[in-house]
Amino acid sequence: MAEGYLKAFLNGEAEVHSAGVENHAINENAIKIMKRDGVDISKHTSNHVSEYEHINFDFIITVCNHAHETCPNFFSNKAVRIHKNFFDPSKIEDEEKLIFGFEKCRNEIKKFCQEFCATYF
């Protein structure tokens, strides 16, 4: 979701990559909830951080505590590291609460991305 918003808000002003410490499918609920806000992430892929170790990033943003704690430190030491733990709706089992959970997460991420772009770009 953060990749989708950053790409939309930055409109080509910066390269945006998204990766994790584990590969997994893009959550269908994330795709649906982002589409409701006009951002299509259906073509995004799940990439492992090791795929990007050759890039000297300006910023490294971790969006959950697990990634923050386990993300390898092989990225550029010059990169500004920003950590923000967002609400994780992926564990919600109640169908009625599921969409609310994804909306909550999306809104938190959207606000963070807006503030990040306003601060650094």
Structure class: mainly alpha
Strand content: 5-15%
- By CATH, the topology is Rossmann fold
* Order of H and E elements: HHEHEH
Unreliable runs, pLDDT <50, ≥5 residues? Answer: none
Corresponding CATH superfamily: Response regulator
- Assign an overall shape: globular
Which CATH class applies here? Alpha Beta
Write down how many β-strands occur, each being a DSSP E stretch of 2 or more residues: 2
Sheet having the most strands: 2 strands, parallel
Helix content: 40-55%
Q: What report would you give on this structure?
A:
The structure is a single chain. The protein is mostly helical and 121 residues long. The chain has helices at residues 2-10, 28-35, 65-70, 95-120; strands at 59-62, 80-83. It has one domain: Response regulator (Rossmann fold, 3-Layer(aba) Sandwich). The chain is built from four helices and two strands; from the N terminus they run H-H-E-H-E-H. The two termini are 19 Å apart. The model has no long low-confidence stretch (mean pLDDT 91).
